[in-house]
Amino acid sequence: MSDDEKGKVLEGATAPKEGKAKALKIKICFDTTQSERGKLDENYTKFKEIAEKLGYSIVSNIEFPITFRQLSHYEIVFFACPDRSKIREFEIEEILKYVRNGGAIVVMASSGGDKGRMTNLNDLCTKFGIEFNNDQVFDDQHNYGIRNLAISTAFEDHPLTKGLELVIIPSSCSLSVSSKAKGVILTDSDAEPPNVPVIAVSEYGFGRVIVVGSYDTFRDSIRAGIQVIQHRILLENILNWAVQDKPLSQILFAFSLLRLKEKKEVKTAPSIISSSLPSTQGMVSPEAILDQILSNLQQVKQVGNQLENVQVALNQVALEVKKLNQNLENTSEIKANLKKIQTDTTITNLNQKIETLDNRFSDMSEKMEKIFTILSQILEKSS
After folding, report:
1. 98 φ, ψ to 5°?
2. What percentage of the chain reaches a pLDDT higher than 70?
3. Is the pTM of this model over 0.70?
4. Residues 6+ apart with CB under 8 A from 292
5. Residue 214: is its pLDDT beyond 70?
6. Any bridge partners for residue 210, and if so which?
7. Residue 196: what pLDDT?
8. b/e sequence 331-367, b meaning 16+ C-beta within 10 Å
9. Which of 23, 117, 218, 382 is 20 to 30 A from 295, comparing alpha carbons?
10. Is the pLDDT of residue 53 over 60?
């Protein structure tokens, strides 16, 4: 590695500036259920310091089992290289539900992928079109002193690669991606294996997924870790992309809460939890207290499940609205087709094609009306 390349790695750019994440109250959580090798209080302390300086709130707080309700308290959840632990099938479904409804996850591994760490991350990541390979990236020509610290300058055009000149790939496995995903940082042509992704992204429902072949990229006090300025830029890019552009589902959900508030002002709803306790001769019995507590907890759980179902239903409706909006964006193409029809066909054919287009717009209007009818029904039930 030349002195110029070393300068780019260590001194080629300034550290990330303070961001606006704090104003947006964006919360990050590191999962702790899978014996992850990356730990905030041990080897990711600099990572935490940088994220907090950018304005993010960051904790380690996921407990077994992983549930949608736990995950939904955070905008981004990290799985920092699980080790000798496997995510259960029902937990994978909970994570998928979280991402589908607007959450973001960052999944990191190490050399050897699933087999090397004895995990089942591929059972999760293949749902997003990304797979960890059972290998290790080497580069004898371009490296940071050691062949398993390969240097990559092969970037795809994506917000994750903004401002990057190079990235070191320390002890990383490679990735395979399908049409559902996109590799954004790849190995160089002289690496082993050549021209394959080591960092990939995917969009799933309203959420986003970032998969990284090496958790060492952001580790403390190691060669080619978080002390590399380029890796700090990469970290900032990952956090920014994971949460930018709030999805329509969140807007609709906020709107539903406003509607509920307006209706409650007209008619005050009865208290969810009763304050009355059965008593014996003026004294409250322990058995009565326990029964009342259990009853109240059950009521709260039922209400929570109902609100969760409302949010999921709203997100499904929002997906349909999003698809219709995409269709409406194609009106410019339709106008161009009309202009061509006017010059290339007879008046009779023109009238026929205009009628066809009118029918298409009528169908689209009917679908929009049905969707907003469903939305109104959902909001009415949730009240």
Report:
1. -60, -50
2. 66
3. no
4. 274, 277, 278
5. yes
6. 106, 201
7. 98
8. eeeeeeeeeebeeeeeeeeeeeeeeeeeeeeeeeeee
9. 382
10. yes
Are the C-beta atoms of 90 and 5 separated by less than 8 Å? no
Q: Which residues contact 274 (CB under 8 A, 6 or more apart)?
A: 292, 295, 296
CATH architecture of 3-243: 3-Layer(aba) Sandwich (3.40)
The pLDDT score that the predictor gives to residue 280 is 41
The CA-atom distances, in angstroms, between 169 and each of 12, 110, 121 are 17, 10, 20
Domain boundary assignment for the chain: 3-243, 248-382
Structure tokens given for 295: 């009853």
Phi, psi values for residue 19, rounded to 5°: -105, -165
| DSSP per-residue codes, 146-181 | STTEEEE-EE-SSGGGTT-S-EEEET---EEE-TTE
Distance (Å, whole) CA 194 – CA 203: 25
Do residues 173 and 130 lie in contact, with contact meaning Cβ atoms separated by under 8 Å?
A: no
In three state form, how does the secondary structure of 42-80 look? CCCHHHHHHHHHCCCEEEEEECCCCCHHHHCCCCEEEEE
- Which pLDDT tens digit goes with each residue over 249-280? 454 444 444 445 445 554 444 444 433 344 44
Mean pLDDT, to the nearest integer, of 279-294?
A: 50
Decide if 272 contacts 303 (C-beta within 8 A). yes
Does residue 220 sit in helix, strand or coil?
Answer: coil
